[in-house]
């Protein structure tokens, strides 16, 4: 019904080792409760020639770079050529895609990062899915629990969509750019190729190929802007 937010319109699922978790599912937030079990199942099938088992339910690609000061709690899969930098804190239920960057003091919990995602500086990403080449600027975070602890809803074109989830951060489509020190409130969904201004407080749905300047001010961006 809400076509803009369907997995098929937000993500290229060929760009994640977790492709199969999306089978038979319509909206991305529907897989959040399945991430931990999926990692354990997938991890036990990974090639021992390509992945090392580094602890209980932790699989790290041999080509990944992991700083000795990083902390990784399972279940977790660190993909090929990923980079886990100084003091990164991976709390569990995390799939980190090929070529992804998890930066200095960044914290992850119950997430899927597609290939080439960058969360490189002081980010918190919880109960969220970040699409191919999505990037969060320094200090940008997801807020995954409402202050009143009620179930998360998504504000979509004037309608409130019930998720049934107490914890949901942000669903970022492919090639989304989030500016520095922005806060993505619970139930944020950002369509592919959208841009969020720095210092933004984002809530609800942001259409694909748009610029979020501030609450109530979202403008479309043209193809020349996207091509850079």
Automatic annotation (TrEMBL):
The keyword RNA-binding does not apply. Residues 72-190 form the Mannose-1-phosphate guanyltransferase C-terminal domain. Keywords: Acyltransferase, Transferase. This is Transferase hexapeptide (Six repeat-containing protein). One of its GO terms (molecular function) is acyltransferase activity. CDD domains: LbH_G1P_TT_C_like (cd05636). Pfam families: GMPPB_C.
